[in-house]
Write the structure tokens for this entry.
Amino acid sequence: MHELSIVANLFEILEREAKEKKAKKITAIKLQIGQLSGIVPELFRSAFEIYKKETVAADAELEIDIVPFKVKCQKCKTEMTKEDFILTCDQCGSNDIKSLCGTELLLETIELET
Amino acid sequence: MKKKEVLVFEDLLGSNKKVASTIRKKLTQNGILTINLMSSPGAGKTTLLERIAEHLEPDHKMAVIEGDIETERDADRIRAKGIPAWQIMTGGACHLEAKMIARLFSEIPSDLDFLFIENVGNLVCPASFDLGENIRCTLLSTPEGDDKPKKYPKAFITSDCLVITKADLSGLLPFQTEKAIHEALTINPRLKTFITSAIKDTGLQALIEYFKTELMKLRS
């Protein structure tokens, strides 16, 4: 359950943003969570709901965009989405694979009330 | 009352990555190879470190940071081998974070060759946290079963090396070493693989040679 410690990081950023932008509160939060980020969105959401009480984001809605794990074969240049995490090209079988996205854990936007 | 949307685009693990990157830079500058050991509880991380301590020639210096939820037991085992060790007790947290390593920084001797960080026994959470290591090493013990790489892909995908431990038990268990290694390589073809038994004292030398080669690369 490392989600709670990442939620704590999120709230450090939220408090800082609210202070810098002189916001009364944060009303919406949008995150990008990669399929290979190691985060379980449901657990993250539960931790968020517990943590948000009595913070600047106490009434905030949390929106999570799941980013699929996409890779590109460096040999045949095919791009593909991997759900099984097997890093072999579906087209040519090469192991020379580069990941494009799916590991991110990003705070994309926030909605502020000033 | 006015509402506005603000673009932030900030990594939620950014603060950990920043501390980790400072740790890596400082240790690398001192010519220290840092190795983050991850595995399920009981896979044999501390025993592997005890054997490495016994096999390492006196001209190579090592130290160990131990991560556990409670007790000083693992650090005591390492100290009994004459190796400097620090115990981090997380008090419930399921993984180590870079800031926990940074707190110990002033105590780490600058003349080390190898700094091992034994993470909290857990094949899931530690994989998300960079500790400033140069090498990430995941252990898989034969009693755990050969199906673990695909069940816990993140640990294996983010690792540089895989160490099969308790290989001496493989004949007694359904564990198929080749299958486990093949499965790990399908999800991460870059993995260096080692088969070890701490009891029979096999495979340790090859692993130590790998660490020495990586140390030479780091210093060149």
Q: What stands out?
A: The CA atoms of residues 161 and 192 of chain B lie 5 Å apart.
